[in-house]
């Protein structure tokens, strides 16, 4: 793939972001001209969803470009195929829509930019045509408890969910086992069930809220370490709403002796910088689950580096947004990325 420096990728990403509304309108109108039966089937609601989808495609494209890797955009294409497939929309429609987005952008880009974008579009279209199923989650001694916990969470049974979590804590050798093999595995499955249209968005939100509640009940039973390991700030990036993952990391690191300030998610950069200074943090954990959070991660890291210069804390990334972005991690100063709780603990 043709390479491009980080600053050039940032500029291209911002250009695509600025073109989103007009490109989405053009792409959607053209799609309905090609497929008039869609307009008859879905009406104006379908047009609205078409524009929203085209904007999402461009948001993920811009973020993948900033990361410097086609892999996140391929993963997004496969996810979109799976999610829409469960709603009876064939993969070739997704591939066609992505191709349209790429073509609509070409006239607004210079030759190098157009070539770079085409590489990402071609990779995503190929991913639509060759979707891969997600690997099965590994089993554990808490597998049966996890299955029961998942059902309780989806049904909204808080009492049962908390009872199962407390029982798992008694059986597990470490709190990490409960957080990973019960909570984390269940959250992944909740996401998969929603993506494949097997549960509603209300059930997905309810299950996540119950997991946060269960974690709060277990937190009071966690014995803190007797010696301090260091000072740390953990935060979700501005615009990021997924809180369970970084919350797990904060809880377990406290049990390992870290003085942790967990800021939650959707934090403005100014608040994060102030918290780092107030805490005297030696380490900062930045969480991002969604690919289009990456541009804000880049800007936050640059802001941290500019503010603290020679006393810059170690920065660790966490979350699925970093699954395929090793180049970006290196470009941001060799920072490391953890995709789950156990990986985060190993790095810290």
Sum this structure up briefly.
With 348 residues, the chain is an alpha/beta fold.
How would you sum up this structure, described in words?
β1, α10 and β2 form a beta-alpha-beta unit. About 1% of the residues have low confidence. This protein folds into three domains: 124 residues, Globin-like; 77 residues, Methionine synthase domain (Methyltransferase, Methionine Synthase (B12-binding Domains), Chain A, domain 1); 118 residues, Rossmann fold (3-Layer(aba) Sandwich). The longest helix is centred in the first third of the chain and has 32 residues. Helix content is 66%, strand content 7%. It is an alpha/beta fold and 348 residues long.
Number of strands: 5
**CATH fold-level assignment of the largest domain:** Globin-like
The low-confidence parts are 134-138
User: What shape does the CA trace take?
Assistant: globular
CATH architecture of the largest domain: Orthogonal Bundle
CATH superfamily of the largest domain: Phycocyanins
């Amino acid at each position: 793939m043709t390479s491009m420096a980080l600053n050039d990728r940032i500029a291209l990403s911002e250009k695509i972001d600025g073109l989103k509304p007009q490109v989405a309108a053009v792409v959607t109108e053209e799609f309905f001209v090609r497929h008039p039966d869609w307009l008859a089937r879905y009406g104006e609601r379908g047009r609205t969803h078409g524009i929203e989808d085209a904007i999402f495609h461009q948001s993920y494209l811009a973020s993948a470009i900033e990361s410097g890797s086609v892999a996140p955009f391929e993963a997004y294409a496969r996810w979109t195929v799976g999610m829409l497939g469960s709603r009876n929309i064939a993969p070739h429609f997704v591939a066609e829509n992505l191709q349209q987005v790429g073509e609509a952008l070409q006239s607004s880009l210079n030759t190098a930019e157009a070539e770079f974008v085409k590489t990402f579009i071609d990779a995503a279209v190929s991913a639509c045509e060759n979707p891969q199923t997600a690997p099965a989650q590994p089993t554990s001694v808490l597998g049966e408890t996890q299955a029961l916990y998942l059902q309780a969470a989806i049904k909204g049974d808080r009492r049962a969910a908390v009872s199962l979590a407390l029982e798992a804590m008694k059986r597990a050798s470490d709190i990490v086992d409960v957080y990973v093999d019960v909570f984390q595995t269940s959250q992944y499955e909740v996401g998969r069930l929603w993506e494949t249209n097997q549960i509603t968005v209300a059930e997905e939100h309810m299950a996540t809220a119950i997991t946060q509640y269960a974690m709060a009940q277990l937190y009071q039973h966690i014995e803190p370490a007797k010696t301090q390991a260091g000072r740390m700030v953990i935060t979700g990036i501005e615009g990021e709403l997924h809180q369970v993952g970084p919350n797990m990391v904060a809880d377990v690191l406290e049990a390992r002796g870290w003085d942790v300030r967990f800021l939650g998610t959707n934090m403005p950069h100014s608040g994060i910088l102030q918290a780092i200074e107030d805490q005297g943090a030696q380490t900062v954990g930045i969480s991002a689950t969604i690919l289009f959070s990456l541009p804000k991660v880049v800007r936050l890291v640059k802001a941290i580096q500019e503010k603290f210069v020679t006393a810059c804390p170690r920065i660790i990334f966490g979350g699925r947004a970093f699954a395929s972005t090793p180049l970006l991690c290196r470009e941001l100063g060799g920072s490391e990325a953890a995709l789950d709780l156990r990986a985060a603990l190993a790095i810290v």
